[in-house]
Description:
Layout: E1 7-12, E2 18-23, E3 27-30, H1 38-64, H2 66-87, H3 89-95, H4 97-107, H5 118-143, H6 147-167, H7 174-178, H8 182-188, E4 196-197, E5 203-204, H9 227-248, H10 262-286, H11 291-314, H12 336-354, E6 363-364, E7 367-371
Parallel strand pairs: 4-6, 5-7
Antiparallel strand pairs: 1-2, 3-7
Helix pairs in contact: 1-2, 1-4, 1-6, 2-3, 2-11, 4-6, 5-9, 5-10, 9-10, 9-11, 11-12
Amino acid sequence: MSEKQEYSFNVGVPQGQFLSHSVTAGTVYTGRAQILSTHERTIWHLVQVLTCAAGMFIWGALFLRPALGLHLLWNVLIPVAPALLVIAPGVWRNVCPLGSLSLAPHHFGLSLRRRLSPAWRGRLYLGALVLLIVVVPLRKGLLDTNGPVLATILGAVGVLAIWLGMVFTQKSSWCSSLCPVYPVELLYGSRPLMSVPNTHCPQCSQCVTPCSESTPGLTPSTAVNTELGRAVGIVLTGCFPGFVWGWYNVPTYSGWEGVRHLHIIYGVPYSAGALTLALFLVLRRIRPKEDELFVRMFAAAAIITYYWFRLPSIFGIGDASAALIVDVSPWLPSWSTTALRISVLVVFTWLMVIREGKQRAWEIHPATVQTLNIPAGEGGSA
Protein backbone atom coordinates (compact mmCIF):
# COMPACT_ATOMS: atom_id res chain seq x y z
CA MET A 1 0.00 0.00 0.00
CA SER A 2 1.29 3.47 -0.85
CA GLU A 3 2.46 5.57 2.10
CA LYS A 4 0.53 8.52 0.74
CA GLN A 5 -3.07 7.57 1.30
CA GLU A 6 -5.69 10.19 0.47
CA TYR A 7 -8.55 10.87 2.88
CA SER A 8 -11.73 12.81 2.38
CA PHE A 9 -13.01 15.04 5.15
CA ASN A 10 -15.36 17.93 5.65
CA VAL A 11 -14.41 21.47 6.56
CA GLY A 12 -17.03 23.84 7.93
CA VAL A 13 -17.36 27.13 6.09
CA PRO A 14 -18.83 30.44 7.31
CA GLN A 15 -22.10 29.95 5.50
CA GLY A 16 -22.64 26.62 7.24
CA GLN A 17 -21.82 24.63 4.13
CA PHE A 18 -19.28 21.80 3.97
CA LEU A 19 -16.58 21.05 1.47
CA SER A 20 -14.76 17.77 0.87
CA HIS A 21 -10.98 17.86 0.47
CA SER A 22 -8.22 15.29 0.04
CA VAL A 23 -4.98 15.20 1.99
CA THR A 24 -2.08 12.83 2.47
CA ALA A 25 -1.89 10.35 5.35
CA GLY A 26 -0.93 11.99 8.60
CA THR A 27 -2.53 15.38 7.90
CA VAL A 28 -5.99 16.73 8.43
CA TYR A 29 -7.41 20.22 8.06
CA THR A 30 -9.91 21.34 10.67
CA GLY A 31 -11.67 24.53 11.69
CA ARG A 32 -13.66 27.28 10.05
CA ALA A 33 -12.56 27.57 6.45
CA GLN A 34 -12.42 30.66 4.31
CA ILE A 35 -13.77 30.23 0.82
CA LEU A 36 -12.11 32.30 -1.89
CA SER A 37 -12.88 31.87 -5.54
CA THR A 38 -10.04 32.00 -8.04
CA HIS A 39 -11.27 35.43 -9.10
CA GLU A 40 -11.28 36.76 -5.52
CA ARG A 41 -7.83 35.38 -4.77
CA THR A 42 -6.50 36.88 -8.00
CA ILE A 43 -7.86 40.29 -7.00
CA TRP A 44 -6.26 40.10 -3.55
CA HIS A 45 -2.93 39.03 -5.05
CA LEU A 46 -3.12 41.90 -7.53
CA VAL A 47 -3.72 44.36 -4.69
CA GLN A 48 -0.75 42.90 -2.81
CA VAL A 49 1.46 43.32 -5.87
CA LEU A 50 0.28 46.89 -6.36
CA THR A 51 0.88 47.86 -2.72
CA CYS A 52 4.34 46.30 -2.83
CA ALA A 53 5.05 48.21 -6.05
CA ALA A 54 3.77 51.41 -4.42
CA GLY A 55 5.98 50.76 -1.42
CA MET A 56 9.02 50.23 -3.63
CA PHE A 57 8.18 53.39 -5.57
CA ILE A 58 8.00 55.44 -2.36
CA TRP A 59 11.25 53.86 -1.13
CA GLY A 60 13.01 54.73 -4.36
CA ALA A 61 11.56 58.24 -4.36
CA LEU A 62 12.96 58.83 -0.88
CA PHE A 63 16.42 58.47 -2.45
CA LEU A 64 15.82 60.09 -5.84
CA ARG A 65 12.97 62.55 -5.21
CA PRO A 66 12.95 62.99 -1.42
CA ALA A 67 10.22 65.64 -1.32
CA LEU A 68 7.86 63.39 -3.29
CA GLY A 69 8.70 60.28 -1.27
CA LEU A 70 8.26 62.08 2.05
CA HIS A 71 4.92 63.50 0.95
CA LEU A 72 3.57 60.15 -0.26
CA LEU A 73 4.63 58.38 2.93
CA TRP A 74 3.83 60.93 5.64
CA ASN A 75 0.93 62.81 4.03
CA VAL A 76 -0.84 60.12 1.99
CA LEU A 77 -0.17 56.62 3.38
CA ILE A 78 0.28 57.22 7.10
CA PRO A 79 -2.81 59.44 7.69
CA VAL A 80 -5.09 56.74 6.26
CA ALA A 81 -3.58 53.83 8.18
CA PRO A 82 -4.95 54.44 11.73
CA ALA A 83 -8.57 54.66 10.52
CA LEU A 84 -8.07 51.50 8.45
CA LEU A 85 -6.78 49.68 11.55
CA VAL A 86 -9.98 50.59 13.39
CA ILE A 87 -12.37 49.64 10.60
CA ALA A 88 -10.68 46.69 8.86
CA PRO A 89 -7.23 45.79 10.23
CA GLY A 90 -7.32 42.57 8.22
CA VAL A 91 -7.09 44.57 5.00
CA TRP A 92 -3.84 46.13 6.18
CA ARG A 93 -2.51 42.73 7.31
CA ASN A 94 -3.21 41.38 3.83
CA VAL A 95 -1.56 44.16 1.84
CA CYS A 96 1.21 45.55 4.08
CA PRO A 97 4.35 45.64 1.87
CA LEU A 98 6.74 44.74 4.72
CA GLY A 99 4.46 41.88 5.73
CA SER A 100 4.47 40.58 2.17
CA LEU A 101 8.28 40.81 2.06
CA SER A 102 8.57 38.88 5.32
CA LEU A 103 6.22 36.16 4.07
CA ALA A 104 7.83 35.84 0.64
CA PRO A 105 10.36 33.18 1.81
CA HIS A 106 7.47 31.11 3.16
CA HIS A 107 5.41 31.42 -0.02
CA PHE A 108 8.38 30.50 -2.23
CA GLY A 109 9.53 27.59 -0.08
CA LEU A 110 12.71 29.32 1.12
CA SER A 111 11.89 29.49 4.84
CA LEU A 112 13.33 27.15 7.46
CA ARG A 113 9.92 27.46 9.19
CA ARG A 114 11.28 27.21 12.71
CA ARG A 115 8.85 27.61 15.57
CA LEU A 116 9.19 30.71 17.70
CA SER A 117 8.95 29.97 21.42
CA PRO A 118 6.50 32.01 23.54
CA ALA A 119 9.40 33.45 25.52
CA TRP A 120 11.16 34.72 22.40
CA ARG A 121 7.90 36.03 21.00
CA GLY A 122 7.51 38.10 24.15
CA ARG A 123 11.03 39.48 23.69
CA LEU A 124 10.36 40.38 20.07
CA TYR A 125 7.10 42.03 21.12
CA LEU A 126 9.10 44.17 23.54
CA GLY A 127 11.40 44.97 20.62
CA ALA A 128 8.38 46.12 18.61
CA LEU A 129 7.43 48.59 21.32
CA VAL A 130 11.01 49.84 21.59
CA LEU A 131 11.21 50.37 17.83
CA LEU A 132 7.91 52.22 17.87
CA ILE A 133 8.76 54.68 20.64
CA VAL A 134 12.31 55.24 19.35
CA VAL A 135 11.58 55.74 15.65
CA VAL A 136 8.37 57.80 15.87
CA PRO A 137 9.92 60.73 17.82
CA LEU A 138 12.88 60.64 15.45
CA ARG A 139 10.49 61.79 12.73
CA LYS A 140 10.50 65.25 14.31
CA GLY A 141 14.26 65.40 14.44
CA LEU A 142 15.27 63.83 11.15
CA LEU A 143 12.93 61.46 9.34
CA ASP A 144 10.22 63.96 8.36
CA THR A 145 12.72 65.96 6.31
CA ASN A 146 15.54 63.59 5.29
CA GLY A 147 14.40 61.13 2.62
CA PRO A 148 17.67 59.19 2.12
CA VAL A 149 18.12 58.53 5.85
CA LEU A 150 14.50 57.38 6.13
CA ALA A 151 14.91 55.14 3.07
CA THR A 152 18.06 53.60 4.56
CA ILE A 153 16.23 52.80 7.80
CA LEU A 154 13.26 51.35 5.90
CA GLY A 155 15.63 49.26 3.80
CA ALA A 156 17.30 47.86 6.91
CA VAL A 157 13.90 47.04 8.41
CA GLY A 158 12.90 45.31 5.17
CA VAL A 159 16.04 43.16 5.22
CA LEU A 160 15.34 42.26 8.85
CA ALA A 161 11.75 41.29 8.01
CA ILE A 162 12.91 39.07 5.13
CA TRP A 163 15.58 37.42 7.28
CA LEU A 164 13.07 36.63 10.03
CA GLY A 165 10.74 35.19 7.41
CA MET A 166 13.53 32.96 6.11
CA VAL A 167 14.17 31.53 9.58
CA PHE A 168 10.79 31.38 11.33
CA THR A 169 7.43 30.08 10.23
CA GLN A 170 4.85 32.33 8.60
CA LYS A 171 3.88 35.45 10.61
CA SER A 172 5.33 34.40 13.95
CA SER A 173 8.47 36.52 14.05
CA TRP A 174 7.68 39.72 12.13
CA CYS A 175 3.97 40.36 11.50
CA SER A 176 2.87 39.08 14.92
CA SER A 177 5.93 39.95 17.02
CA LEU A 178 8.65 42.42 16.03
CA CYS A 179 6.80 44.68 13.59
CA PRO A 180 6.53 48.09 15.32
CA VAL A 181 3.05 48.60 13.86
CA TYR A 182 1.78 45.35 15.41
CA PRO A 183 1.11 46.77 18.92
CA VAL A 184 -0.81 49.65 17.33
CA GLU A 185 -2.82 47.20 15.22
CA LEU A 186 -3.84 45.45 18.43
CA LEU A 187 -4.66 48.72 20.19
CA TYR A 188 -6.80 50.20 17.42
CA GLY A 189 -8.16 46.97 15.94
CA SER A 190 -9.71 45.21 18.93
CA ARG A 191 -13.27 45.87 17.67
CA PRO A 192 -13.16 45.98 13.85
CA LEU A 193 -16.21 46.68 11.76
CA MET A 194 -15.48 43.92 9.28
CA SER A 195 -13.51 40.70 8.78
CA VAL A 196 -11.82 39.81 5.51
CA PRO A 197 -10.27 36.61 4.13
CA ASN A 198 -6.71 35.82 5.18
CA THR A 199 -4.95 35.84 1.83
CA HIS A 200 -1.47 35.08 3.19
CA CYS A 201 -2.57 31.93 5.04
CA PRO A 202 -4.64 29.49 2.96
CA GLN A 203 -4.18 27.06 5.86
CA CYS A 204 -3.41 27.88 9.49
CA SER A 205 -0.29 26.20 10.91
CA GLN A 206 -0.80 27.82 14.32
CA CYS A 207 2.43 29.78 14.00
CA VAL A 208 1.39 31.82 17.06
CA THR A 209 -1.21 31.20 19.74
CA PRO A 210 -3.56 32.95 20.00
CA CYS A 211 -3.74 33.92 16.35
CA SER A 212 -3.92 37.71 16.13
CA GLU A 213 -5.94 37.65 12.93
CA SER A 214 -8.50 34.99 13.85
CA THR A 215 -9.15 35.63 17.56
CA PRO A 216 -11.84 38.25 18.26
CA GLY A 217 -11.24 40.86 20.93
CA LEU A 218 -7.48 40.63 21.34
CA THR A 219 -5.79 43.66 22.88
CA PRO A 220 -2.13 44.61 23.26
CA SER A 221 -2.02 42.93 26.69
CA THR A 222 -3.74 39.67 25.68
CA ALA A 223 -2.20 38.93 22.27
CA VAL A 224 1.18 37.64 23.53
CA ASN A 225 0.53 35.15 26.29
CA THR A 226 3.59 35.70 28.50
CA GLU A 227 4.22 37.94 31.49
CA LEU A 228 6.51 40.10 29.38
CA GLY A 229 3.94 40.28 26.59
CA ARG A 230 1.22 41.38 28.98
CA ALA A 231 3.48 44.03 30.49
CA VAL A 232 4.38 45.38 27.06
CA GLY A 233 0.70 45.60 26.16
CA ILE A 234 -0.20 47.44 29.36
CA VAL A 235 2.59 49.97 28.84
CA LEU A 236 1.63 50.57 25.20
CA THR A 237 -2.07 50.99 25.99
CA GLY A 238 -1.49 53.37 28.87
CA CYS A 239 1.23 55.54 27.39
CA PHE A 240 0.03 55.89 23.80
CA PRO A 241 -2.52 58.75 24.18
CA GLY A 242 0.05 60.92 25.95
CA PHE A 243 2.80 59.81 23.60
CA VAL A 244 0.77 60.91 20.56
CA TRP A 245 -0.18 64.22 22.18
CA GLY A 246 3.43 64.88 23.13
CA TRP A 247 4.63 64.07 19.61
CA TYR A 248 2.32 66.70 18.13
CA ASN A 249 3.62 69.29 20.57
CA VAL A 250 7.22 68.95 19.41
CA PRO A 251 8.41 71.15 16.53
CA THR A 252 9.78 69.60 13.35
CA TYR A 253 13.48 70.33 12.93
CA SER A 254 15.14 70.61 9.54
CA GLY A 255 18.26 68.81 8.40
CA TRP A 256 20.45 67.61 11.23
CA GLU A 257 19.29 70.33 13.60
CA GLY A 258 17.08 67.85 15.43
CA VAL A 259 20.09 65.89 16.68
CA ARG A 260 20.84 68.85 18.98
CA HIS A 261 17.30 68.75 20.35
CA LEU A 262 16.92 65.07 21.19
CA HIS A 263 15.99 65.95 24.77
CA ILE A 264 12.90 67.74 23.42
CA ILE A 265 12.13 65.25 20.67
CA TYR A 266 12.06 62.36 23.11
CA GLY A 267 11.42 64.13 26.40
CA VAL A 268 8.01 65.61 25.58
CA PRO A 269 6.34 62.44 24.19
CA TYR A 270 7.89 60.24 26.89
CA SER A 271 6.82 62.58 29.71
CA ALA A 272 3.25 62.89 28.42
CA GLY A 273 3.13 59.12 27.83
CA ALA A 274 4.28 58.49 31.40
CA LEU A 275 1.43 60.63 32.73
CA THR A 276 -1.29 58.78 30.80
CA LEU A 277 0.31 55.44 31.69
CA ALA A 278 0.15 56.39 35.39
CA LEU A 279 -3.53 57.28 34.97
CA PHE A 280 -4.20 53.98 33.20
CA LEU A 281 -2.52 51.99 35.97
CA VAL A 282 -4.48 53.84 38.67
CA LEU A 283 -7.78 53.20 36.89
CA ARG A 284 -6.96 49.50 36.51
CA ARG A 285 -6.09 49.30 40.18
CA ILE A 286 -9.26 51.06 41.33
CA ARG A 287 -11.67 49.28 38.94
CA PRO A 288 -10.01 46.02 37.83
CA LYS A 289 -13.27 44.64 36.44
CA GLU A 290 -13.47 47.54 34.00
CA ASP A 291 -10.11 46.81 32.39
CA GLU A 292 -11.60 46.08 28.96
CA LEU A 293 -13.47 49.39 29.00
CA PHE A 294 -10.33 51.29 29.98
CA VAL A 295 -8.40 49.69 27.12
CA ARG A 296 -11.07 50.82 24.66
CA MET A 297 -11.11 54.32 26.14
CA PHE A 298 -7.36 54.76 25.97
CA ALA A 299 -7.23 53.34 22.44
CA ALA A 300 -9.94 55.80 21.39
CA ALA A 301 -8.13 58.64 23.16
CA ALA A 302 -4.95 57.87 21.21
CA ILE A 303 -6.52 57.85 17.77
CA ILE A 304 -8.77 60.84 18.55
CA THR A 305 -5.64 62.75 19.58
CA TYR A 306 -3.94 61.75 16.35
CA TYR A 307 -6.76 62.91 14.08
CA TRP A 308 -7.53 65.94 16.29
CA PHE A 309 -4.22 67.34 15.12
CA ARG A 310 -3.88 65.60 11.75
CA LEU A 311 -7.33 65.71 10.14
CA PRO A 312 -7.48 69.50 9.54
CA SER A 313 -4.08 69.44 7.85
CA ILE A 314 -5.22 66.59 5.59
CA PHE A 315 -7.45 69.23 3.96
CA GLY A 316 -4.65 71.79 3.99
CA ILE A 317 -5.96 73.75 7.00
CA GLY A 318 -3.03 75.35 8.78
CA ASP A 319 -0.42 73.62 6.62
CA ALA A 320 -1.00 73.43 2.89
CA SER A 321 2.11 71.27 2.38
CA ALA A 322 0.59 68.52 4.58
CA ALA A 323 -2.61 68.17 2.54
CA LEU A 324 -3.44 64.61 1.51
CA ILE A 325 -3.65 65.36 -2.23
CA VAL A 326 -4.56 69.00 -2.79
CA ASP A 327 -5.08 71.97 -0.51
CA VAL A 328 -8.82 72.64 -0.31
CA SER A 329 -8.68 74.94 2.71
CA PRO A 330 -9.43 78.14 0.71
CA TRP A 331 -12.89 76.75 -0.11
CA LEU A 332 -13.72 75.61 3.42
CA PRO A 333 -15.65 77.73 5.96
CA SER A 334 -13.86 79.17 8.99
CA TRP A 335 -15.48 76.67 11.35
CA SER A 336 -14.16 73.63 9.44
CA THR A 337 -11.43 72.81 11.97
CA THR A 338 -13.93 72.69 14.83
CA ALA A 339 -16.38 70.60 12.81
CA LEU A 340 -13.69 68.13 11.78
CA ARG A 341 -12.46 67.71 15.36
CA ILE A 342 -15.97 67.21 16.73
CA SER A 343 -16.53 64.58 14.01
CA VAL A 344 -13.34 62.78 15.03
CA LEU A 345 -14.42 62.77 18.67
CA VAL A 346 -17.91 61.47 17.93
CA VAL A 347 -16.98 58.86 15.29
CA PHE A 348 -14.12 57.18 17.09
CA THR A 349 -15.83 57.30 20.50
CA TRP A 350 -18.76 55.46 18.97
CA LEU A 351 -16.65 53.02 16.97
CA MET A 352 -14.24 52.09 19.75
CA VAL A 353 -16.07 52.68 23.05
CA ILE A 354 -19.85 52.89 22.74
CA ARG A 355 -20.65 50.54 19.86
CA GLU A 356 -22.13 47.20 20.86
CA GLY A 357 -22.48 44.01 18.86
CA LYS A 358 -20.71 40.78 18.12
CA GLN A 359 -16.93 40.91 18.29
CA ARG A 360 -15.20 40.17 15.02
CA ALA A 361 -11.76 38.86 14.23
CA TRP A 362 -9.52 40.75 11.83
CA GLU A 363 -9.72 37.96 9.28
CA ILE A 364 -11.69 34.79 8.65
CA HIS A 365 -9.85 31.82 10.12
CA PRO A 366 -8.45 29.47 7.48
CA ALA A 367 -8.55 25.71 7.91
CA THR A 368 -6.10 24.52 10.57
CA VAL A 369 -3.39 22.03 9.71
CA GLN A 370 -2.92 19.31 12.32
CA THR A 371 -0.73 16.24 12.13
CA LEU A 372 -2.35 12.95 13.11
CA ASN A 373 -0.85 9.48 13.48
CA ILE A 374 -2.94 7.77 10.85
CA PRO A 375 -1.34 4.56 9.53
CA ALA A 376 -0.98 4.45 5.77
CA GLY A 377 -3.53 2.20 4.17
CA GLU A 378 -6.27 2.82 6.75
CA GLY A 379 -8.37 5.14 4.68
CA GLY A 380 -11.61 6.61 5.85
CA SER A 381 -13.84 9.61 5.62
CA ALA A 382 -15.40 11.98 8.06
